[in-house]
Write a structure and sequence with these properties.
498 residues; alpha+beta; Immunoglobulin-like; five-stranded antiparallel beta sheet; four-stranded antiparallel beta sheet; 15 helices; 18 strands; elongated
Amino acid sequence: MTIQNAPDSVLTTMTQAGRRIWLRPRLSLGRFLTARRLAAYFLIVLFFGLPWLPVNGFPAVLLDIAHRRFHILGYTFLPTDTLLLAILLLTIFVSIFLFTALLGRLWCGWACPQTVYMEFLYRPLERLFEGTTGKGGESRASLAGWRKPAYFVAALLVTALPAHTFLAYFVGVENLRQWMTESPVQHPTAFLVMAVTTVLMFFDFYWFREQLCLIACPYGRFQSVLLDKWSLIVSYDRKRGEPRGRRVSESRSMGVSALTVLNTPIPRHSDTPIPSTRGDCIDCHLCVATCPTGIDIRDGLQMECINCTQCIDACDAVMEKIGRPRGLIRYSSQAAIEGEKVRVLRPRVVFYPALLAILITVWIVIFSNKGTADVTLLRNFGNPFTMLANGQIANSMRLKVQNRTDKPQEYAFQLVNVPEARIVADRNPLTVAPDHAETQGFVIEVPLGAFAGKLGTIDVTLRVTDGQGFSKDVAARLLGPMNVVSASPAATRSGAEP
C-alpha cells in the first residue's frame, strides 16, 4: 500500500522555514458530517455516563489501579487475571489489524477521542468565539482582540469537565465528588493529579490539536503495513477528475468561486460522458480548505489523512452545484479506483478473523471457568517431607484463596481421594474479606504405608468450598520415602511402621 505526500511538503502544519501553520478548517455540511455528529454525541454521552452507571454495586467501568481491581460491566478483574488481560489486549490488537484492513482509518475519523472532542467540541467553540462560523481561514482581526482571550477561558473551563470525568474512571465518582467539594489542602495529591490532567488535556486540544495525529500518534504510520490496495479509504477518482482545472467563470451566487459551467450542463447524477477535455475537478480547493489536517486528498493516500470525510461532503456539494455526479471523492479502494476487480477474500482478511476467533474462544473458556474465588496451592519452604514420631509422613503446604465477591466468605478445604490422610491447620474454614486474599499454612499427614509401591509420591486432590455453591479441586503431589514395603491394614490405620 503506497502512501504519498505532496511534493516538497514537510508537514501540512509547518512551513519550509519551520513555522507553525494554524489550521482553521472550513466546515462542510453533508450526510457524512451529520452521521459523524450523531456518532460523536453518542460517544460523548457514553463517556460521561459510564462512571455514573452502577452495575452490581460498582460503576460500569472503574479501573481502580490503587487497589489493583478493574470493575468492568459488573465483573471484577484482579491481578490473578493476568492471562485474561493478555488475551484481551492481543484480541484488541488483532481487531485493529482486521478493522484497518477492511475499513481503513474509520476509527480515526469517527470514534477517536482526539477527533471527537476536537471537531465536535473545541472547533465549534473556537468558531463561536473567534467569529469564523465554520468558514475556515484566519479569524477576523477586528474581533480577535477580545474573542481569543474569551475562547481561552471558555476552553479551559470546558476542559475541566472531561478531565475530571476521565479521572472518575480510575478513582470513582464518590472519591471525585469528595475531592471537588473539599479544600485542596485536605488532599493535595489528588488536587495535583486533577490539575495536571486538566492542563495536559487543555494543552492537547487548545495548542497541540491536529499535531497529535500528525506527529505523536503512530497509527497513521502503520498504514503501509495494515492496509492493502483493497482496503476502504477516502479516495479521489483521478481518472474522472483529471486533468483538473477551471472551466467556469467566477460566480458568488453558487457559494464558492468558479462554479458557473461554460460548456453544456449535464443532468445531476448522470453517467453521460462530460463533453470537455478537462475532468470533473474544477480545482476549487475546497477539499483542502475543509481538511482538519490540511492535506490535499488529490495527492493520494497520505499518512495525515484521518478519513474524516469532510472532503467528501465538500466535493459532493460542488458536484451537485455544477450538475456533475457525486463521488469524485468517495469511500473506495485504490484497486477499485484503478479499475481492478474487487477481491473480497485475501490472505489478511482470512487470517485475522481466524486468529480473532481463536483468541475470543480461549478468552470465553477461561472467563467462564473463573469462579467467585481464586485458589492457589503451594508447597511450603524447607524439607520436602517430614517423618513424625507417630510414623506419619507430613507435607507442609500453603493455600492462598482470593475472594472475588463483595462479601466475606468462609472457605473450607479437605482431601477427597486419600481417606487415610488428614489435614492439620490453624484455620479451617478460612475467612477471607471481600476482594482480598488470605494465605493459610497447613500440614497433610499420611501414614507411611500409603507410600507402598508409590515410588515416593502420592497424587491427591484438595477440594475448596465456600458453602455458597463455589467448589474448586486443586491437584497436589505428596512426597515421601521410596521403596516402602506394604503393611497390614491394621498397621497402616494405626500409623505404625511395617
